[in-house]
Q: What sequence folds into this?
């Protein structure tokens, strides 16, 4: 099944996976602790504003995972002291769903002292506190749903997210949070 891009958020870890039928020539690159989805060197040129973005960024005492430009304002609000729920909800509401041919939802999560997952779709804004690993995706699985997923280090989390049985995996990121800091990792496929 194709569910598009998705996040998995748990109380102490998170994951983000790019799944794409239209733009598979992407990778995750590390830039000063922030993870960015970017075209691979062999990717054809395009002017789609939704192809490259920060997908993991620290903010405040936590870390944000998500599928687009909303990751930055969420992290910035956390830096300003906003509670995780408010940073997530206000940024998703302000940026709304993507105005592309599919009205693609924006998905995101915050992993920290309080962990939340959220989605803004054409018809709803949902933000939920998580107490167990919870998945939300741009298609099909577009409501927060518990998932059987374990976190064992950021690189392993990224690989496990990449390997989940959903179609068109491109690359994935993983994060861990232990109260004293954040660790990030990624996996760009075989």
A:
């Amino acid at each position: 099944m194709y569910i598009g891009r998705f996040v998995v958020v748990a109380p102490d870890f998170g994951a983000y996976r790019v799944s794409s039928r239209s733009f598979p020539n992407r990778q995750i690159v590390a830039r000063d602790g922030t993870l960015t989805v970017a075209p691979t060197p062999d990717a054809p040129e395009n002017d789609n504003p939704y192809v490259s973005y920060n997908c993991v960024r620290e903010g405040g005492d936590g870390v944000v995972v998500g599928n687009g430009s909303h990751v930055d304002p969420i992290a910035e609000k956390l830096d300003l002291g906003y509670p995780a729920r408010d940073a997530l909800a206000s940024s998703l509401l302000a940026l709304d769903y993507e105005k592309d041919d599919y009205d693609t939802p924006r998905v995101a999560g915050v992993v920290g002292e309080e962990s939340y997952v959220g989605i803004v779709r054409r018809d709803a804004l949902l933000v939920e506190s998580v107490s167990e690993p919870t998945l939300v995706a741009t298609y099909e699985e577009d409501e927060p749903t518990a998932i059987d997923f374990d976190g064992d280090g950021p690189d392993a989390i990224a690989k496990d997210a990449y390997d989940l049985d959903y179609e068109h995996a491109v690359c994935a990121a993983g994060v861990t949070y232990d109260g004293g800091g954040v660790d990030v990792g990624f996996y760009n496929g075989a």
